[in-house]
Amino acid sequence: MDLRPFREITEELLLGYQRGSSYWVTVTNITTPINFYVRSTNYDNLLELLQSHFVKAIKEEHNVYPNLDDIVVYRAWGRGGKIMRGRVIQINLSELSTTCHIFALDYGYIDEDVELKDIFLCDEDIEAIPPLAIQCQLYQCGLIGDSWLEDSIEAFKFYIGGERCKMIVQNNIHNKLTVQLFNTCPEDISSMLALTGYSNLGYVDPFASRIYSKSNATKTPKIERTHKYYYNYIERTVNTTLCVRMLHYINFEEFYVAVIQEYRKDRKLLKDITGKVAKEREIREEELVVGRPVAVLVKEAEWKEVGYRGIIECVMPETHASVCLVDSGRRVLAEKTNIRSIPQSLLEHPVTIICCRTDELGIGITMSSFKQKGFKFNITIKEPGSELKVPYSVLTTRLEY
Predict the structure, then answer these.
(1) Which distant-in-sequence residues (6+ apart) come within 8 Å of 68 by Cβ?
(2) What is the mean pLDDT of residues 9-33?
(3) Where does residue 268 fall: left (phi above 0), alpha (psi -120 to 50 degrees), or beta otherwise?
(4) Domain 271-348 is in which class?
(5) Mean pLDDT, the chain, integer
(6) Hey, where are the domains in the chain?
(7) Tens of pLDDT along 336-368?
(8) Interval 239-252 mean pLDDT
(9) Which of these, 232, 137, 124, 128, lies nearest to 175 by C-alpha position?
(10) How far apart are CA 298 and CA 295, in angstroms?
(11) How far apart are CA 65 and CA 95, in angstroms?
(12) What are the angstrom distances between the C-alpha of 380 and each of 240, 251, 358, 387?
């Protein structure tokens, strides 16, 4: 099955959700009105092709023992034996069995405790296709009270009603879209929830009120200060050679390095981060969204918790979230009580690590040395990457002393 044309179309569309653009979509999974997943109906034919591949993979019985973050094909008996592809987000070990929690890439939901006999090898071509489902929140949709009530969530599901929706993108931050949804309801879905008392029709971003009393008419209306909720990344130039040290090795397609001079400077600037993180408030439920920068406390030893900067990669039901540590590339499964609001001072400091891929090792570099944390070598940038999402393609060469 030749999926290259579909992969090109998919990458183009997934990177092309621009403000003001519109799509016909299917809502694939709903948690709350500010946390749900949709999939473009343009992908329906591709999904059918993928499905035929999944069935073939299971018939060939290429079972696999997965690692964390691996993309696999799996059968979800809790969904009637549906066969899908997903990313392994948790591995559960016990004396009796090993199971995995898997995030369904093309649907946006999590299947828990999938047994190893139902997990299969995923073809590299299919693994390379980006997720077809993308995370969204409704535009100008605010909750009533401190958390989303079950009645509001059920009302949202009722108004969606299994129909396809016209989606208009209002914002795109860290691959989470803020959208308006329209179907056969008389108003857009956000307005329907507000008109029937299930939400507040609110603003997504801070704003200045235009309503003030005559006694204050001569005063300039107060504009609330917006907060920066993203990291800055250093862009690397093609054909630049850098002296780096290994931070975290996964495989040739994904490993993380730091420029040695930048690493020394970062160590000094971030050495007191644990104290700062410990003083921050626990993150609120509505702030637990994929792509959000956070601070996190990680238990590194029986007696020691260490603070790190991170980005939420996956929100798990009830107690945990998967967080990528942006100063090393490590992924950790953190309890929600240890995920904290990140101070603005830590957001201001740029992320300097480089996510890389390579086809082979340079002459004189052994595999055992390359995988070791702290190993020093040179990289030459051959193809550009993007933040920590798309690896830079690099050549590796031995460091000459």
Answers:
(1) 88, 89, 90, 91, 331
(2) 78
(3) alpha
(4) mainly beta
(5) 82
(6) 1-62+121-226, 241-263+352-397, 271-348
(7) 888 988 888 888 788 889 999 999 998 889 999
(8) 92
(9) 137
(10) 10
(11) 16
(12) 6, 18, 10, 17
Fold agreement (1-62+121-226, 241-263+352-397): yes
pLDDT in tens, 204-238: 433 333 333 333 333 333 333 344 467 888 888 88
Residues 239 and 376: their CA atoms lie apart, in Å, by: 19
Which pTM was predicted? 0.51
CATH class, 1-62+121-226 region: mainly beta
Question: Domain spanning 241-263+352-397 has what CATH number?
Answer: 2.40.50
Q: State how far Cα 101 lies from the chain centre.
A: 16
